[in-house]
């Protein structure tokens, strides 16, 4: 059941994490945890079970692309869909995200409908 999926929301701004968490909750996904950067996210991903990662790109310590690379190189994590979220709508970032194995890409600011549509599309595509 899709609603039972556990999300990890990664963003260096707590307000943005809260917004994403609330939007997911409104979309029926109430199980979510948060991490403030890629390093914290990797620690949580390796310590606990998650089904889906929503990550910002621009963060200190380890950015979203580095996190994506780490996830895709880890046999225990590489199955996880990673949805990239960023304020940058640069074509090269979108291409890099796709080449790195990201399941999707959203540009901030976005609406509940956009997030919900992207998440549901990925869930359907990956049969989660």
Radius of gyration: 13 Å
Strand count, sense and barrel status of the largest sheet are: 5 strands, parallel
Strand composition percent: 15-25%
Q: Give the count of helical stretches.
A: 5
Question: Can you tell me the residue ranges where pLDDT is under 50 for at least 5 consecutive residues?
Answer: none
**Broad shape:** globular
Structural class: alpha/beta
Keywords: Phosphoprotein
Domain Response regulatory: 6-123
Modified residues (4-aspartylphosphate): 56
Protein name: Chemotaxis response regulator CheY
Task: Show the helix and strand layout.
Blueprint: E1 7-10, H1 14-26, E2 32-35, H2 38-47, E3 52-56, H3 64-73, E4 82-86, H4 91-99, E5 104-107, H5 112-126
List keywords for this structure.
5 strands, single chain, five-stranded parallel beta sheet, alpha/beta, CheY-like_superfamily, 128 residues, phosphoprotein
